[in-house]
TrEMBL record:
<feature type="signal peptide">
    <location>
        <begin position="1"/>
        <end position="26"/>
    </location>
</feature>
<dbReference type="GO" id="GO:0046556">
    <property type="term" value="F:alpha-L-arabinofuranosidase activity"/>
</dbReference>
<dbReference type="Pfam" id="PF04616">
    <property type="entry name" value="Glyco_hydro_43"/>
</dbReference>
<protein>
    <recommendedName>
        <fullName>Alpha-L-arabinofuranosidase B arabinose-binding domain-containing protein</fullName>
    </recommendedName>
</protein>
<keyword id="KW-0732">Signal</keyword>
<dbReference type="GO" id="GO:0046373">
    <property type="term" value="P:L-arabinose metabolic process"/>
</dbReference>
<dbReference type="InterPro" id="IPR006710">
    <property type="entry name" value="Glyco_hydro_43"/>
</dbReference>
<dbReference type="Pfam" id="PF05270">
    <property type="entry name" value="AbfB"/>
</dbReference>
<dbReference type="InterPro" id="IPR007934">
    <property type="entry name" value="AbfB_ABD"/>
</dbReference>
<dbReference type="InterPro" id="IPR023296">
    <property type="entry name" value="Glyco_hydro_beta-prop_sf"/>
</dbReference>
<feature type="domain" description="Alpha-L-arabinofuranosidase B arabinose-binding">
    <location>
        <begin position="352"/>
        <end position="481"/>
    </location>
</feature>
<keyword id="KW-0378">Hydrolase</keyword>
<comment type="pathway">
    <text>Glycan metabolism; L-arabinan degradation.</text>
</comment>
<comment type="similarity">
    <text>Belongs to the glycosyl hydrolase 43 family.</text>
</comment>
<dbReference type="InterPro" id="IPR050727">
    <property type="entry name" value="GH43_arabinanases"/>
</dbReference>
<dbReference type="InterPro" id="IPR036195">
    <property type="entry name" value="AbfB_ABD_sf"/>
</dbReference>
<keyword id="KW-0326">Glycosidase</keyword>
Length: 484
């Protein structure tokens, strides 16, 4: 064999070794096509103080749901109106990225529905994650700003469109077109939920009929004759079908024969249609929010979406403790379920801090100030998750709020506040404490400051402070008990 051929053979052998090594050691993306074993529902709960935020629930069978994070929100909007409704969750085809998009709206702040619809936010709120548990800060996506006279941007949804290799984001905007002002569905295309195409009209029911809620599901193997099915709240709950996300749609029918409508047909008046496929079988659920009666979501199911006559009502479901409003459901792989449950499942401890000398009172936050109170309402204001100390995880603790995730008890000028973790070393030190034997009773606990070791958490006139402890009264004020 000649030298050039020998050198070429050596190079080819090295290339093969490199390729084999890379294929063995390169990290694999989360496989979206792994078998699905669970379900994740993202939703909001209503117009309460913290109800218009992001909540999660988990299910193993698609019918019986468990609230995550002890029923508290898992994400808070800090942009726009500082409230979100109608969230939708989206997974990339590779299963390596996720987005939550939601309406930028907080009715609980006192905003009227008229103002929200006619002079509201024209942006959506977006969160992004690579693992379903660590999410980016929220950002605004001004999808409706280019629509003439747009008054809002409500009830967003998104679906990956294989035909174009990007995502179709669609939502309702209240605007005047052809002399008629009403809600219609518009869409944009995006590959990253940051930049997007110009908005285009997607659904217009004609005459004066508005439409706000619509959701599309892709059906494997085109069961029922079509690849995509769309459920819309447009006076009825209208079911349509298509073989193309942006193509023409065929009207399959509505649910009037089941006594279900969006108002025009009377009966059980619902909104927020939410699709879900049962894992491992050709059966689908369409969840409908019974907002008119306040009963929350109900499922109807079908094994063939090609006819609305195939739907059946179900009674064998349980939605957990919290009221679930307009959201979406994503099927989960075993790995995804494990991560979500490890982060927000029932195994995560939630505790209250009980005062030693005022045993009917507990540490709570109110308007981000911290004090001890009795009969705390809402109860979650007095619930915290003791986590390893932010500044030192060995023998130290930090207290994360249950209903303000990412917010911690911290001292500032020796006063206590509930504040969002800004990632700084100063914040971490101010929010870290050493649990020691109670200064007034060794069977209880006291909490020594990490960065001011001569001071402890104590209450004074019911307000929490960081003080030096020199008297019997102060020792009692600085003694607490972690309780359920």
């Amino acid at each position: 064999m000649s030298r050039p051929r020998t050198r070429l053979g050596t190079l080819l052998a090295l290339a093969c070794l490199i390729l084999v090594s890379w294929s063995v050691t390169a990290p694999k993306p989360a496989a979206a096509l792994d078998p699905f074993t669970g379900y994740l529902m993202v939703h909001f709960t209503g117009e309460t103080a913290n109800g218009e935020q992001i909540y999660l629930a988990h299910s193993t069978d698609g019918l019986r749901w468990t609230d995550l994070n002890s029923g508290g929100p898992v994400l808070l909007s800090t942009v726009g109106t500082r409230g979100v409704r109608d969230p939708a969750i989206v997974r990339s085809p590779a299963g390596d990225r996720y987005w939550i998009i939601a309406t930028d709206l907080r009715i609980a702040s006192g905003t009227s529905w008229s103002d929200a619809a006619n002079a509201g936010s024209r942006s959506l709120v977006v969160w992004e994650s690579t693992d379903l548990v660590n999410w980016s800060a929220p950002r605004l996506l001004n999808v409706a700003g280019a629509i003439s006279g747009a008054g809002d941007a409500w009830a967003p949804e998104a679906i990956y469109n294989a035909a174009t290799g990007d995502y179709v984001v669609y939502w309702a905007t209240n605007a005047t077109l052809n002399g008629v002002k009403k809600h219609r569905i518009y869409y944009v295309r995006t590959s990253d939920f940051r930049s997007f195409t110009a908005p285009q009209l997607y659904i217009d029911r004609g005459a004066g009929q508005g439409i706000i809620d619509t959701q599309i599901i892709e059906v494997p193997n085109s069961v029922g004759g079509y690849r995509y099915y769309r459920a819309s709240a447009d006076g009825h709950i209208t079911i349509e079908a298509s073989n193309s996300v942006l193509g023409s749609w065929t009207n399959i029918g509505n649910l009037a024969h089941m006594g279900i409508s969006n108002g025009t047909g009377g009966g059980n008046v619902v909104e927020g249609p939410m699709w879900m496929q049962f894992n491992g079988r050709n059966e689908w659920a369409l969840w409908l929010d019974q907002y008119a009666t306040g009963r929350g979501y109900m499922p109807i199911t079908s094994t063939n979406l090609g006819s609305t006559g195939n739907f059946q009502t179900r009674s064998d479901y349980n939605l957990g403790t919290s009221r679930k409003r307009h959201g979406s459901i994503m099927n989960l792989t075993a790995a995804e379920s494990s991560r979500v449950l490890a982060k927000w499942g029932s195994s995560v401890a939630v505790r209250r801090l009980q005062s030693y000398n005022f045993q009917t009172r507990y540490v709570r936050h109110i308007n981000l100030d911290v004090r001890i109170d009795a009969n705390v309402s809402p109860a979650q204001d007095a619930q915290f998750r003791p986590v390893p100390g932010l500044a030192n995880s060995s023998g130290y603790v930090s207290f994360e709020s249950v209903n303000y995730p990412g917010y911690y008890l911290r001292h500032s000028n020796y006063d206590f506040v509930l504040a969002p973790n800004d990632g700084s070393t100063t914040f971490a030190a101010d929010a870290t404490f050493k649990q020691v034997a109670g200064l007034a009773d060794s069977t209880w606990s006291s909490y020594q400051s990490y960065n001011h070791t001569d001071r402890y958490i104590r209450h004074y006139n019911y307000l929490l402070r960081l003080d030096q402890i020199t008297t019997t009264q102060a020792r009692a004020d600085a003694t607490f008990r972690l309780t359920s």
